[in-house]
Write a structure and sequence with these properties.
Number of helices: 15
Distance between the termini: 91 Å
Family: Belongs to the glycosyl hydrolase 5 (cellulase A) family.
Protein name: Glycoside hydrolase family 5 domain-containing protein
CATH architecture of the largest domain: Alpha-Beta Barrel
Subcellular location: Membrane
Order of helices and strands: HHEHEHHEHEHEHHHHHHHH
Number of strands: 5
GO cellular component, one term: plasma membrane
Oligomer: single chain
Number of domains: 2
Strand content: 5-15%
Organism: Subtercola boreus
CATH superfamily of the largest domain: Glycosidases
CATH class of the largest domain: Alpha Beta
Length: 415
């Protein structure tokens, strides 16, 4: 069988999506904080392990990659983009820092574009993760472009600019990436050079950290290259599809495109019915396995901390985040480990079901997706001359109705 790029892409994503879509989620109900007394007893009994730790607020960084196009915007446009990033919960922005923009000649710098971006990010409480990209003509290998991809003549030139950048924005840019996807021509034209790239990293790292010791410096992430084997691309696509399947209802598309247009509603509702029943059954069965294992592990944690059997049992039954934060740090860590150790086996139990779903998906016939709306396919839509005639009729009816309304002429000033 001949595999085209499109067929590889479709097969990889679809296979992963079917597996991902089969994962059954579950949730745990949170107990009332009013029943915290048994936990307090358990915490007091465990005081010999560690002094009680203060409550902590967990933070979860959320990043947005803005690229370099934002640097072309006005100050207002930059601020609007950053405001949206902050509003949606972002905490860090990934930004392309274009060397050839900022240092057009060996002795001149123009920081205006980047300066607006940094100031806007600071105002919005956002950290910056900058990728130092491109190369100005005066520093490029051979003295020519394309400037966005050409490698510099020497690693020292790149490191010198990186040091200047870190000096100017010390404490204001949190992290730096040394180019991106350096194994491709798009990053180090004319050809990838691992030895030269390693020299760039070795030269840029001390230059940046000397100027800003608090900054994080990372090497560029690798990307697919022309020599990447097909099997590895398929693995990557499968992984992507497994994640996509969790949010994209692949089975619904299969069902809707397997029946005539007049039966789409029935087919969709039938699929939803079995999905709801299956979800409820899955949560009940696998949730029971999880909670049973968790209860045993939590009993062991509280009993080991010195609580009586009764207090340990009540503490296990009434545990919630608020009371958990009141426990000593050592006990908190053991509780977290108990949750992790109880949850992981549940996913192993799901593997046989996912394997069966994956095998069954291989027997699904290839069906061309519908390219028309449901009403059009069912002959219910009004189109063409019929639509125009209907619109004309509606306008005429509206005109007649307005003409039939009583006149409401304004009264004269004399009245």
């Amino acid at each position: 069988m001949h595999l085209t790029r499109r067929s590889i892409l479709t097969t990889g994503i679809s296979a992963g999506a079917v597996v991902g879509a089969g994962v059954v989620g579950g949730g745990l109900s949170r107990a009332s904080a009013a029943a915290a007394a048994p936990l307090a007893a358990a915490a007091q009994a465990a005081a010999h392990v560690q002094a009680q730790a203060p409550a902590r607020v967990a933070s979860f960084p959320v990043g947005f990659s803005l690229g370099s196009n934002i640097l072309w915007g006005t100050t207002t446009e930059i601020d609007q983009t950053l405001d949206i990033t902050s509003y949606t919960g972002g905490t860090i922005v990934r930004l392309d820092i274009m060397w050839y923009w900022l240092q057009p000649t060996a002795t001149t710098f123009d920081w205006s574009r980047l300066g607006d971006m940094v100031a806007g990010a600071e105002a919005g409480g956002l950290s910056i993760f900058g990728i130092i990209l491109s190369c100005p003509a005066w520093a490029a290998l051979g003295g020519t472009g394309p400037l966005s991809t050409t490698r510099p003549r020497t690693a020292a030139l790149y490191a010198a600019f990186a040091g200047q950048l870190a000096t100017r924005y010390r404490g204001r840019i949190a992290a730096y990436e040394i180019r991106n996807e350096p194994n491709g021509r798009e990053a180090l034209a004319p050809d990838p050079d691992p030895v030269f790239y390693a020299a760039m990293v070795q030269a840029a790292y001390p230059a940046i950290t000397a100027a800003d010791p608090a900054a994080t410096v990372v090497a560029g992430a690798l990307g697919p290259a022309p020599a990447t084997p097909i099997w590895l691309i398929c693995v990557f696509l499968f992984e992507f599809g497994a994640g996509l399947g969790l949010i994209m209802q692949v089975v619904v598309l299969v069902v809707q495109n397997s029946v005539p247009a007049t039966q789409v509603g029935t087919a969709t509702s039938t699929n939803n019915y079995f999905r709801e029943v299956g979800s409820a059954l899955g949560v009940a069965v696998f949730g029971a396995l999880f909670t049973s294992s968790l209860s045993e592990k939590l009993l062991a944690v509280f009993s080991g901390a010195g609580a009586s059997a009764g207090d340990a049992s009540q503490a296990t039954a009434t545990l919630d985040p608020a009371t958990l934060n009141q426990l000593p740090q050592a006990i908190q860590d053991q509780v977290v480990a108990a949750y992790a150790d109880s949850l992981a086996p549940v996913f192993w139990y799901l593997i046989p079901f996912l394997a069966v779903a994956f095998v069954l998906s291989l027997f699904l016939p290839q069906i061309r997706l519908s390219d028309v709306a449901g009403m059009v396919a069912r002959g219910e839509a009004v189109t063409g001359e019929e639509a125009e005639a209907l619109e004309t009729e509606q306008r005429e009816a509206a005109r007649v109705a307005r003409a039939a309304e009583p006149s409401h002429a304004p009264k004269s000033r004399a009245e």
